[in-house]
Amino acid sequence: MEESFGEYFKKLRKKAMLSKWALYQKSNVSYSMIGNIENNQVENISPIVLKKLAKHLNVSYSTLMIKKGYITKKDLIVIVDQKDGLMIGETSQAVHK
After folding, report:
1. Fewest C-beta in 10 Å: which of 25, 80, 85, 90?
2. Burial of 48 from C-beta contacts in 10 A (0-12 / 13-18 / 19+)
């Protein structure tokens, strides 16, 4: 059986060695929301909330968006810039320079 988003989220938080309270203080996402996410009691988590949490969980915003099912890996684009090399874009709105 596949791991739920809440289980995945809790593992990330523990790996980052953050309590729910510490994550709340760093991310400004409510303590109750963090608990509800971990207990799979929030069906539609705002992408804005995921972005706030991602940087403190040592994971990319796009990884959380994929895991939550908002985007797929195919939605990510690799932009090739001949001068700077490869850059990973997080939306299909990216364009070549």
Report:
1. 85
2. exposed
